[in-house]
Design brief:
mainly alpha, Arc Repressor Mutant, subunit A
Length: 194
C-alpha cells in the first residue's frame, strides 16, 4: 500500500509539457531534453508519414525543436497545448516541402522504430505513396487516427479543429485511399480469372 502511494505521488510530480516549456524558456536545458524525449519521436513519426521521406522527417523534427528554442518559437498556453503547437510547427514546415514521390527507402529494423518492419510490405509502400497524395488535412487525420492510433478528440486537439471535422476528413481520406489502392488488387484478380 505504501508503494502505491509513493508511485501516485511520483506520477503527480511529473511536470506537464507546458511546465517543461516554461522551464526551457527560462534556460533549463534538462527541460528541453525531457520535452524532446517525450515529443520528439511523435513529431518525427508525424513528419515521416506526412512526407514519406526519412531525411525530411529528421530535418522537420530538428527544425521544430530549434524554433521553440529560438526567439521565433513563442508558444501561447491560451491557444492550446505544447504538443499541438509542435505539431502545428511541423505541419507548417511540411507545407513548404513537396511529398516524396518515391516510397521510403528500406532500412534494417531497430528497437526504437518497430514500424520499419511494416515498410517491407509492398502494400505499405503503396499506402505511403497514396497517403502523400492526399490533401494535408486528410493526411493529418489518417496519420493521427489510423497510424498513430490517437482518438478523434486527441487528433482534433492536435489539428486544432472540431472533432466532427476530424471524423469527416478521416472518412473522406479513407474513401480516397481505398480508391487509390483498389487498383493494386485488380491485377491479381484479373490474373486469377484468366
Amino acid at each position: 500500500m505504501t508503494v502505491f502511494a509513493q508511485c501516485s505521488v511520483t506520477a503527480g510530480m511529473r511536470p506537464t509539457d507546458e511546465e517543461l516549456y516554461r522551464q526551457m524558456r527560462g534556460g533549463d536545458k534538462s527541460a528541453l531534453a525531457e520535452l524532446y524525449e517525450r515529443l520528439g519521436a511523435r513529431i518525427y513519426r508525424y513528419a515521416l508519414y506526412a512526407s514519406g521521406c526519412r531525411p525530411i522527417a529528421e530535418e522537420v523534427t530538428q527544425e521544430v525543436f530549434l524554433r521553440i528554442i529560438g526567439t521565433g518559437g513563442q508558444f501561447s498556453e491560451g491557444r492550446g497545448s505544447v504538443e499541438a503547437y509542435l505539431y502545428g510547427l511541423a505541419r507548417n514546415l511540411l507545407r513548404g516541402i513537396p511529398p516524396a514521390n518515391t516510397p521510403m527507402e528500406e532500412e534494417p529494423p531497430s528497437v526504437e522504430d518497430l514500424l520499419t518492419e511494416l515498410i517491407d510490405d509492398e502494400r505499405t509502400s503503396a499506402l505511403y505513396g497514396a497517403l502523400a497524395e492526399l490533401p494535408s488535412g486528410y493526411r493529418d487525420a489518417v496519420v493521427l487516427c489510423d497510424l498513430e492510433e490517437r482518438s478523434y478528440e486527441e487528433a482534433a486537439r492536435l489539428m486544432q479543429c472540431p472533432t466532427g471535422t476530424v471524423r469527416s476528413r478521416l472518412h473522406r481520406a479513407r474513401l480516397l485511399l481505398a480508391a487509390k489502392l483498389t487498383p493494386l488488387r485488380a491485377p491479381s484478380f484479373h490474373a486469377a480469372a484468366r
